[in-house]
Structures are given as C-alpha cells and as structure tokens.
Write a structure and sequence with these properties.
Helices cover 38% and strands 14% of the residues. The chain is an alpha+beta fold and 114 residues long.
C-alpha cells in the first residue's frame, strides 16, 4: 500500500496536517509538501482529504490471495492457451514473492491439467 499525493488537487484545507501522527504534511511557501520518508502509510490523511489529493493505492496480498484472483480466469486460460503474467513493477524488487507465485501457478497447472 502506498499513499498517492497529487499536489494540483490539494486545496490547502490542512485537515491532513492535523491527523497525520508523523507530521508528514507541511505547508511551505504556500504549497503542501508530503514527506514520504516519515510516512508509515496509516492512511489517516487520505480519510480527511475531501479534495482527493491524497489516496491509498495498492494493497498487500499473499500468494494464496493472488492465486484466488488469477484462478477466476482459469476457463479463459484453458481455451486461449494463455496464462498468468507478472507485471506492474520491477519483478526483481519482489523476487521471493514472484518465485512463490510462479511455483503456486505451476502446482495449480499440474493439478488441473485438462
């Protein structure tokens, strides 16, 4: 999970400043600055941002949770000859998770071979 901040949407209301436990949001020279290094991704600021300048994006998932989503498309894979693609970021940044996901996909393929 990450916190997305789009400065152009910020209306400068200051609600996020008040709720952030680590003071990640400050106003400098009339502009809202977001200090990502201090952020613990609690999401409290996003709940107070009525302009939607701040929002939670992404989520953490286990291998089993990802496989549950992937396997909903099993009929498509079986009829098209396609399969799962790992994308959306640098594969090597999550190497162990990617390997575990590929192992789970291979195990499933071997169990349910038509």
């Amino acid at each position: 999970m990450e916190i997305s901040f789009i400065a152009e949407k910020c209306i400068g209301c200051g609600y996020c400043f008040r709720v952030c436990p680590h003071e990640c949001h400050v106003m400098k020279n009339g502009k809202h600055e977001f200090n990502r290094e201090r952020c613990i991704r609690c999401g409290l600021c996003t709940k107070e941002c009525h302009a939607q300048a701040l929002e939670v994006v992404g989520k953490s998932m286990s291998v089993a949770e990802v496989m549950e989503v992937v396997l909903k498309d099993r009929p498509f894979y079986q009829t098209s000859g396609g399969g799962m693609t790992i994308s959306g970021g640098e594969l090597m940044a999550q190497l162990e998770f990617s390997k575990a996901l590929l192992r789970a996909a291979k195990k499933d393929k071997n169990q349910y071979r038509p």
